Each structure stands twice: as structure tokens, then as C-alpha cells.
UniProtKB/TrEMBL annotation, chain C:
<dbReference type="GO" id="GO:0015658">
    <property type="term" value="F:branched-chain amino acid transmembrane transporter activity"/>
</dbReference>
<feature type="transmembrane region" description="Helical">
    <location>
        <begin position="67"/>
        <end position="86"/>
    </location>
</feature>
<dbReference type="InterPro" id="IPR001851">
    <property type="entry name" value="ABC_transp_permease"/>
</dbReference>
<dbReference type="GO" id="GO:0005886">
    <property type="term" value="C:plasma membrane"/>
</dbReference>
<keyword id="KW-1003">Cell membrane</keyword>
<feature type="transmembrane region" description="Helical">
    <location>
        <begin position="239"/>
        <end position="265"/>
    </location>
</feature>
<feature type="transmembrane region" description="Helical">
    <location>
        <begin position="118"/>
        <end position="136"/>
    </location>
</feature>
<keyword id="KW-0812">Transmembrane</keyword>
<feature type="transmembrane region" description="Helical">
    <location>
        <begin position="277"/>
        <end position="295"/>
    </location>
</feature>
<protein>
    <submittedName>
        <fullName>Branched-chain amino acid ABC transporter permease</fullName>
    </submittedName>
</protein>
<feature type="transmembrane region" description="Helical">
    <location>
        <begin position="92"/>
        <end position="111"/>
    </location>
</feature>
<keyword id="KW-0472">Membrane</keyword>
<feature type="transmembrane region" description="Helical">
    <location>
        <begin position="156"/>
        <end position="174"/>
    </location>
</feature>
<feature type="transmembrane region" description="Helical">
    <location>
        <begin position="205"/>
        <end position="227"/>
    </location>
</feature>
<dbReference type="InterPro" id="IPR043428">
    <property type="entry name" value="LivM-like"/>
</dbReference>
<dbReference type="Pfam" id="PF02653">
    <property type="entry name" value="BPD_transp_2"/>
</dbReference>
<keyword id="KW-1133">Transmembrane helix</keyword>
């Protein structure tokens, strides 16, 4: 059985079909890339899975538990973590305290405050924010804020992380560092769903890639196959067949 | 018509008539809240000042209160502009709590200055037509209340035209929707804010003038009208002039019927219970835009 | 609102706190009745401000109806002492507990609203209670009720001091506790808090109920102290506004800030009253306006800025003005 299994997930906003009967399955330990032009419904799909939006139709289970109707905190406690496209730190709290929050509330067993702070320190080392642990979160740069988002998600001890454009706006060197970090995280057995426009990263990391367009899944498979598929190229560029998503501006 | 039906209808009429006054009280408050994002606790104090201006114009210079309305409005306009331009504008980009507290301080200041200047003695304005009622079949329509409703509709109409058809209205709405963008487009935002507040103060003054005809005048009277403005805004939606009119009428009806069914001491209970219900069910009000209110 | 996360004052802080408490305990023996009264009044507002800080400062929910719980505490204490012939202590406790229950009930509804809307709805709650109290017989209706007279005035001093100490302690313990982390996260970003495993409502209710408890206790003490309670006196938004101003000025989201704000502002108010009973409210209104414009970050900024005070004020104004 897949770790995460979404079947027929659909979301309508009035008459706008944001997500159109999407099936998505993620095996334990897998890295799945989720790509598609802007407005394809990727973030909405993540919102459906994590409970921030209610699906109009469809079902999703995580680790055998049906998720529909559960509130976001309960879903998080099952081991499903997500990051936001625009980082959402707790601005006046320190970096360390930010990461202690999910450690405190991930559920059973819940550590005490002191233990949670120590855990936060350990997680911060993994993402490379150790030296900045006592800074207020609002003092961080954008790349560091992304790392903080990752750290908070990690502190939930998830089995699966949904990462929404963690690499947007990073320099190529930063992208390499981020890819390395994600590989380390994956090596601990955490499955990843990586939403990205930085296709180099998606190609380099993913075991499997899923392509969304206008809310529908239009392709799925190994990275090289998917990015060469004609329907995917058409989705990114309209009718122009000579350029592929790898050369399109993100 | 049966006696019960007659009473019910009279109550409906009374409710609508007083609702007109409520609408005039609330429309300026709604304008300021909807466009400047300022909850003006001192709004009722401005209404109170309008009532006093009307009173003094009447008792010193024998100017009829209804004829004096433009003067009252102008006086409050002249007070409101510098108040916004030089005082409230200083903190307008700060948090909601800061502006709320500032207007609270202003309310304290204005109310207590009025108390010091004019004492707590209750005044009233009695004209020759104060007690007149028009008869419409079995119903009695007090003339001053009809004037109140008429002026409310007129003021709401003019304000609505101003907001939707004039350049100033466009500037106000642009500034309300995005301050930075408005500034970049060359709109003199400090001035626009001050004009908006001045217009709101003028309507508060006019409401005070109307109120002076039917209700007692004393320095502390403002608080009750601020609360009324709150409820009307919640009912009708923020920043919506037709909403303020509708909200005022609804509140007037609700309170009149509550007073009839439950007794005169239940008007606030009904009003605020309705308010809480509306907030839970449809927080944007009848005409407001549904917004995600991030706390 | 700022809160840089709790810091440890250490041994020095603990000694200072103990010394302050000892001094406070000694006051009635050393000072005349006038000063004892004045200080009791200051403590009372310190209690209100510290209590408000729990929901308004730490949680970020501006409760404008907090005086609802003053009324609940006052009337519960009054009714139990007058009609059930209870002694003050159990009546006061009952007032506090009933406030907690009312807060839990109303909070589960009101705390789903945010920002302005919560502020108005909570105020509406207070107004409804005010009118209810005016309509019920057991509360004495609009004419109010008279409580039995206390024999010794200093009893109020000590009760208020005890409640204040508890409130300040709560303000110290809360942000360092697990619930405090949840509350801070909710204040900063409720959506982010949710995806990290926090179900917001129970924690908001906790803060709201704790704040209500302190307001209820204040109400009970007030009722016994002034021996007369009627709806507009206890269900009075002025108490709430003063608590808010004092909290804001002293530093929201800190344990001692609200108390500091209360001490400074209430002392100023007493001084102004001595200068002119008539004009003291005018002065206070002007003071609030000036403080809000020039010192929105309150005492904390004034203390920290010192020499660079003018520059700090200018910087704040640049951010907030148009």
C-alpha cells in the first residue's frame, strides 16, 4: 500500500476547476516531483491533502488513515508535513523556538519544553542553521527562511514532506546545496513530494515525476521520459515543439 | 385592521424611521473604517458635537435645526480635517490597536472638554414642529423622524454618488485598496485621508443635528451612538454606503420590535446578540466583501 | 506586538521580585490609609492589565469586552455574600470560577473570529451582560445591589496584592510553557501553527479563560471594596480600555510590562486628579493620545532608548505616519 494515496481529488472554486480528478500515489521513501506551469493546481492539491482546503470530490489516505474531514493539526500529527511557498515563520520568536514548536506538538509522545529545544538544536544542525539559532526569525535572509521552513517540517518527524517551491529564487550554488540537503533528508527514510519550477532540481532528485496542467494530471513517469513527452512540452509552451520544459523560463 | 396588526405596523414604521437616523450615524463610521481601516471610537463624540452645534445655533441665533444641518456639517468637516491630517495620520499605518487607542484617547478628550465647557446638564431642542405627526391611515409618522429618514436617504445617496462617480471618490477608493500604489500614482494620500475623515465627521455632525430634535443632548451621549454605528456596520458591511442604510433600517426595526415584545430594557441585548450571530454566520455583513480576516 | 521570546532574569531577578513583594507586604503597616488606598487602586489596574495581557498581548486577540468578567465576578461575589451569606473568600473564588466557565463557553464561539471582529463581538458580549444585569431581579436590576460592609480596609490591599502576584506569575510562566509556545505560534501565524500540529481553539480558550479569571477576581474585590454594584459601573468598557492602554504602554507580551504601565499611568492619573478633578480626564485623554503617537512601543522603548529617544520616536513615526 502506498504511503500517500490520493484518488480522484477535485477542487472547484465556483466554476473554476482548480484540481481535476487527480490521482497521486507516493511510496515510502520515494521522491516524487510535481511540476506544471503556473496555475496548474499544484499548491491547491497540497492544500487539499493537508486539510487547509476541503476537496469537492475525491479521497486521500495517508499511512492507511483517511484524511478527508480531518483538520490540519491532526493531519500534521499523522506524520505529514508541508512547507509554504511563501515562508511562514513565527517572526518574533527565535529560530530555535520556531523549530521547537512542531517538536512540542507533533503528538505522541510529546516532549517537554527543554527537550523540544534540544531537539530543535539538532534539527537546525541538519539544515545548517545552527549558528543562527538565537536570532529572531524576522532577521533571516530568504534562503535561510527556506531552511527554517524545512527545519520546522523536519521537527514534526514526518514520514512524508510536501515541499512547495523550496528552491524558488535560489542561486545555482544554493540550489545544489538544497538538493544535497533534501537527499540527506530522504536518506533518513522520509518521502518527499517536491513542487518545483527549477527543473534541474526536479530531474536530479526525483524517482518519479508527475505533471499537472489546468488541474489535471497529464503525465507521470521517470523524469527524462516525462520532460520529453510532447503533451508536457505543449503544456509549458503552447504549440511550440522545439523547446521543452527544461529550457522554458520557470 | 386589527389593533394588533396596527401596533405591529406602527412599530415597523417607528423602526424604519429611527433606522434612518441610525444609518446617518453609521455611514461616516463605516466610511472611515472601510477606507482608512480606523475604528473611530470618537465617532459618537462627533455626533455629540453636532448635536451641541445645532443646539447653540438654535438657542443663540434661532436658526432652525433642519436648516442648520449644512452649517453643522460644515463645522464638523472643519474639525475633522485637521484631526485626521495632523493627528490620526501620524499613526495610521501602525497596528489596529494603536489607532483604536488613539481614537479612544480623542474620545476621552472631546467628551470631557465638552463636559467641562457645557456641564452635564441635559439640553434639548424643541421647535414648533417637534411634536407634529403626519397621519397615514391609522399610523402616526412623527415629522422630525420623517425628516431624519429623508435626510438619511439623501445623505447616503450623495455619498454613494461621491464615492462611485467623482474623482475624489475614485481617489478615496484607490487609496483604500492600496496605499502605496495610490501614492505612487501621485494621489496626495494624506490629504485624501483627511478629506475622507472630514466627510465622515460632517455626516456625524448632521446625524447629531437630527438627533437633537428627538433625543436629549449631553456630553456623554456619544458612546451609545458609537455602539450603534458598530452594529450597523457589522450588519451592513464595512465601507458600503447602501449597507449602512440597510443596516441602520434593520437595526431600527430589530430594536423597536425588541422593545415592544420584551420591554424597553432589551434593546441592547437584542442588538448585540444579533451582531454576534451575524459575525459568526456572515462576518462580511449584508453588503460587505468577504475577506479573510487574519488576526 | 513584540515579544522577543522569554528570557531568564536569573537569580538577581528572583531576589528583586522577592524584595518587591516583601516591600509591598509591609506597606499597610508603614503608610497612611490614603496611600494604602491609592496603591490598592494601582494594584487593581496592574491586575487588570496583567490579566488582559494574557489574551490580548500573548495571544494577540484584542478583548474589548473583558469587563464582562469584572461584572460576572462582582455580581457573583455580591449575590453569594448578600443572599447566600457566604464569606468573602469563597464568594470571591466562586466569582473567579464562574468567570472561567463563562469564558470557556463564550470563547468557544467568539474565538473563531479574528481581529476587529473579535474585538467588537467581545464588546457586544459585555453590553449584553450589562443589560441582562439591569433586567434581572437577583442582581437588583438597574438600582444595583449593596454588599455587606467590610470591617478592615487593608483586607482589600492584601487580596489585590495576592491576585496581582498570581497574575504576574501567570504572565511569567505562560510563555515558557508548552501552552505558551502554542499561543505565541497562534499569535504570529495561526495557519502555520495549524500545519505544525497545533489545534488553535483550545489554547485560545485557555488564555481567554485565564484572563477572565483575573478580571473576575478583580470584580469580586471591587464589589466588596466599594460595597455597591450596578450594571454600568462594573460592566464598564473604561476598565478594559485602561487595561489595554497600560498593557500597551508597559509592554505587551512581557510579564512585568502591564504592571509597569499600570504603575506609571495610574500614578499620573492620581496626580492629575489632585491637580484638577474636573480636568483630569481631559489630561488623561490627551496623555493617551500623546503616548500612542510618540511612544507606541511604550515604556520599554523609552527605557531602552534613553539618549537616542528623539531619534527612536522619529523612526517610529516614520513607520506609522502617512
Amino acid at each position: 500500500m502506498a504511503l500517500l494515496e490520493g484518488r480522484g481529488l477535485t477542487k472547484l472554486f465556483g466554476r473554476l476547476v482548480a484540481v481535476d480528478h487527480v490521482d497521486l500515489a507516493v511510496e515510502p521513501g520515494e521522491i516524487v516531483g510535481l511540476i506544471g506551469p503556473n496555475g496548474a493546481g499544484k499548491t491547491t492539491l497540497v492544500n487539499l491533502i493537508t486539510g487547509l482546503e476541503a476537496p469537492t470530490d475525491g479521497a486521500v489516505t495517508f499511512d492507511g488513515h483517511p484524511l478527508r474531514g480531518r483538520q490540519p493539526p491532526a493531519i500534521a500529527r499523522l506524520g505529514l508535513a508541508r512547507t509554504f511557498q511563501i515562508a511562514q515563520p513565527f517572526r518574533t520568536m527565535t529560530v530555535r523556538q520556531n523549530v521547537a514548536v512542531p517538536a512540542l506538538f507533533r503528538g505522541d509522545p510529546a516532549p517537554g519544553v527543554a527537550a523540544a529545544l534540544r531537539e530543535a538544536d539538532a534539527v537546525l544542525e541538519i539544515v545548517g542553521l545552527g549558528p543562527k539559532r538565537d536570532l529572531p526569525a524576522r532577521a533571516l535572509t530568504t534562503p535561510d527562511l527556506r531552511r527554517l521552513e524545512l527545519a520546522k517540517a523536519l521537527a514534526l518527524r514526518p514520514r512524508l514532506m510536501l515541499l512547495d517551491e523550496v528552491m524558488a529564487g535560489l542561486t545555482p550554488t544554493e540550489v545544489d546545496a538544497a538538493m544535497e540537503m533534501l537527499r540527506r533528508i530522504n536518506a533518513r527514510g522520509i518521502a518527499l513530494v517536491v513542487i518545483e519550477h527549477v527543473l534541474r532540481a526536479v530531474m536530479g532528485l526525483s524517482h518519479r515525476v508527475v505533471v499537472l496542467h489546468h488541474g489535471r494530471k497529464i503525465a507521470e513517469g521517470a523524469p527524462a521520459q516525462v520532460t520529453a513527452a510532447p503533451e508536457v512540452i505543449r503544456a509549458y509552451l503552447g504549440a511550440d515543439q522545439d523547446a521543452g520544459p527544461g529550457s522554458a523560463p520557470p | 385592521m386589527s389593533a394588533a396588526a396596527q401596533i405591529a405596523l406602527q412599530n415597523a414604521v417607528n423602526g424604519l424611521l429611527i433606522g434612518g437616523t441610525y444609518a446617518t450615524v453609521a455611514v461616516g463610521f463605516s466610511l472611515v473604517w472601510g477606507t482608512l481601516n480606523v475604528v473611530n471610537i470618537a465617532h459618537g463624540a462627533l455626533v455629540m458635537l453636532g448635536a451641541y452645534v445645532t443646539y447653540w445655533l438654535f438657542s443663540l441665533y434661532h436658526i432652525d435645526p433642519l436648516l442648520a444641518l449644512p452649517l453643522t456639517g460644515a463645522a464638523l468637516f472643519a474639525l475633522g480635517y485637521p484631526l485626521q491630517r495632523f493627528v490620526i495620520n501620524q499613526v495610521i499605518r501602525a497596528s489596529f490597536l494603536i489607532t483604536f487607542l488613539l481614537t479612544f484617547g480623542l474620545d476621552l478628550l472631546i467628551t470631557n472638554l465638552a463636559l467641562a465647557a457645557w456641564t452635564a446638564d441635559i439640553r434639548s431642542v424643541t421647535t414648533s414642529y417637534s411634536g407634529w405627526s403626519l397621519a397615514a391611515g391609522p399610523l402616526a409618522l412623527p415629522v422630525v423622524r420623517i425628516a431624519g429618514l429623508g435626510i438619511a436617504v439623501l445623505a447616503a445617496g450623495l455619498l454613494h454618488l461621491l464615492m462611485t462617480r467623482s474623482r475624489l471618490g475614485g481617489a478615496i477608493r484607490a487609496t483604500a485598496s492600496d496605499l502605496e500604489a495610490a501614492r505612487l500614482m501621485g494621489i496626495p494620500t494624506a490629504h485624501v485621508y483627511a478629506l475622507t475623515f472630514a466627510i465622515a465627521a460632517a455626516t456625524a455632525g448632521i446625524a447629531g443635528g437630527l438627533i437633537s430634535l428627538s433625543f436629549p443632548i449631553y456630553p456623554a451621549m456619544g458612546a451609545g451612538y458609537t455602539l450603534i454605528a458598530f452594529v450597523v456596520c457589522v450588519l451592513g458591511g464595512l465601507g458600503s454606503v447602501p449597507g449602512a442604510l440597510a443596516g441602520g433600517l434593520i437595526l431600527g426595526l430589530l430594536q423597536t420590535y425588541a422593545a415592544w415584545w420584551l420591554g424597553p430594557n432589551f434593546d441592547n441585548i437584542v442588538a448585540f446578540s444579533v451582531l454576534i450571530l451575524v459575525l459568526l454566520v456572515r462576518p462580511a455583513g449584508l453588503f460587505g466583501r468577504a475577506r479573510r480576516f487574519r488576526g | 506586538m513584540r515579544g522577543q521570546g522569554p528570557h531568564r532574569p536569573g537569580a538577581a531577578g528572583a531576589i528583586l521580585a522577592a524584595a518587591a513583594l516583601a516591600a509591598a507586604l509591609a506597606v499597610p503597616a508603614l503608610a497612611g490609609t490614603y496611600y494604602v488606598r491609592v496603591i490598592t487602586g494601582i494594584f487593581m489596574f496592574g491586575l487588570l492589565a496583567s490579566g488582559w495581557n494574557l489574551i490580548g498581548g500573548y495571544t494577540g486577540y484584542p478583548d474589548f469586552g473583558a469587563a464582562a468578567f469584572i461584572g460576572i465576578g462582582a455580581y457573583t461575589t455580591g449575590i453569594l455574600m448578600l443572599h447566600a451569606h457566604l464569606a468573602f473568600a469563597p464568594a470571591l473564588a466562586a466569582g473567579g470560577l464562574l468567570s472561567i466557565a463563562a469564558a470557556a463557553a463564550m470563547g468557544s464561539v467568539l474565538l473563531r473570529l479574528r481581529g476587529h471582529y473579535f474585538a467588537i463581538a467581545s464588546l457586544g458580549f459585555m453590553i449584553v451582560l450589562q443589560q441582562l444585569a439591569a433586567n434581572l431581579e437577583i442582581t437588583g436590576g438597574g438600582s444595583g445591589m449593596n454588599l455587606p460592609v467590610a470591617r478592615n480596609f487593608t483586607t482589600f490591599y492584601y487580596w489585590t496584592l495576592a491576585a496581582l502576584t498570581l497574575a504576574v506569575a501567570a504572565g511569567y510562566v505562560l510563555p515558557r510553557s508548552r501552552a505558551g509556545y502554542a499561543i505565541a505560534a497562534i499569535r504570529e501565524n495561526q495557519d502555520a501553527a495549524q500545519v505544525l500540529g497545533i489545534a488553535p481553539l483550545p489554547y485560545k480558550i485557555l488564555a481567554y479563560a485565564a484572563s477572565a479569571f483575573f478580571f473576575g477576581i478583580a470584580g469580586g474585590i471591587y464589589a466588596y471594596w466599594f460595597t455597591f454594584v450596578d450594571p454600568p459601573t462594573v460592566f464598564n468598557v473604561d476598565f478594559t480600555i485602561q487595561a489595554i492602554v497600560m498593557t500597551l504602554f508597559g509592554g505587551p507580551g512581557t510579564a512585568l510590562g502591564p504592571l509597569a504601565g499600570a504603575v506609571v499611568l495610574k500614578s499620573l492619573d492620581v496626580l492629575l486628579t489632585n491637580i484638577s478633578v474636573f480636568l483630569h480626564n481631559v489630561f488623561f485623554g490627551a496623555l493617551v493620545c500623546l503616548l500612542v503617537i510618540f511612544a507606541p512601543r511604550g515604556l520599554a522603548e523609552i527605557v531602552r532608548a534613553r539618549g537616542g529617544l528623539i531619534e527612536a520616536i522619529r523612526a517610529d513615526l516614520r513607520e506609522s505616519r502617512i
